[in-house]
Amino acid sequence: MENSNLSRRHFHKLTAFAFGGLVAGAGAANAADEKKPTISVDPALLLSEPHTCRGLNTCKGMGAGKDNACAGQGACATATKHTCAGENACKGQGGCGGYPGQNTCKGKGHCAIPLSKESWSLARKQFERLMTDAGKKFGKAPKG
Amino acid sequence: MHKVAAHTPDRIQRWMQAVIMHPDGPVAGIDSPLAREAIDVDTDRIELVVCRSRNLTGVERLQIYSSAYLARLVECLREEYPAMVHLLGRETFDSFAVAYIQSHPSTSYTLSNLSQSFPRFLRETRPSDEEGGDGAADWIDFLIDLATVERTYSEVFDGPGLENSKSLSPDDLRLLPPEEWENARLLMNPSLRLLTLQFPAHEYISQVQKKKSPDIPAREPTHLVILRRDFIVRRNPVSARESAILAPLRRGEALGAAIEHGLQLKDGEPVPDPAVLREWFRSWTVATYFRGIAAPVVC
After folding, report:
1. CATH fold label, B161-293
2. Helix (H), strand (E) counts: chain A
3. Which of A6, B147, B163, B265 lies 20 to 30 Å (CA to CA) from residue A46?
């Protein structure tokens, strides 16, 4: 052992204790496994629905009990917007206001770029609001 | 209007994909090599492919799909980073999400990979302390820690685990002679991840999950083990010295070398008593940090 005041003998002792911990833990885990009910479970079934959703990356919210937690359902809402576009009801509902920097705007050269700098500025505002709400002091605002 | 030559569904599909998914919007998408390769049409002649409606031009109609595509990806990020959304507010979070998606367009078959670079993106675009303003540095670092933990939760949730195989068993250890213990290499649970953070971001996330409104925690060096057991993602805070032992084990270093690495840590923590070390390894094993022991190398 380099740079250590521990003797070789003590180091071997530590290793032996660590290995003993492994043995004790493996035994305990093994005993716990044997106590588990032997219900036949097909992990594929367990994962299939979350996995389907997970592929859409939105299943985490399901626990919150939201009906529209899955992306597939979220997509439906988007599709609804599509259909109403032909009736001119959606125009103005999307655009820069909802998603600053979204493709439309950037393609038309309207949105502020670089966006990440803008994002951090927004974050700073949120920071100031949170700090104020919490009654905490903070420094001056970022330079523009 | 001129009639456009009929295109095969395959070409139209590839063209639509290239146009709708282009990070700079459909106008840039129409001019992209990928789209032009499928259907060679510029924006002036776009309505030969997508007709205008009574109210919308062809580009505007495409824009609806393009915006919806982006909105759906942003929605995915919101679902994956609920604590960040809570901290930032939805509008600010969306701003970060859009910036990220535009610089890291989705290229994978699965949306699980969409935000894999989001924490790195935040680190790379992090404003300097001067730009961030006094007092903001802590908060920015916390935001990055938060993103790191939430992304890790997702990766552990989606990644391989031990649910369909066994963890370390007494039989794995029984046959190893004492003189080989020091050289034993433990095989880790494939879901196990080790994070070193500047803040206890996991506690903030737990509070948000409980529908509470936590304050931003004070800066505190934090070491986390995150793994999945019985299909549940779990996080265990560990000491710096525990982390210093687990890190080399995870890299595949031998038991003795990992312990030595942990003992050399100089951060004020006392050198562990042998009984403490034993308890660490016992609890780690019960918590299925290990799945087995590597076969000894025969020279």
Report:
1. Outer Surface Protein A; domain 3 (3.90.930)
2. 6, 0
3. B147
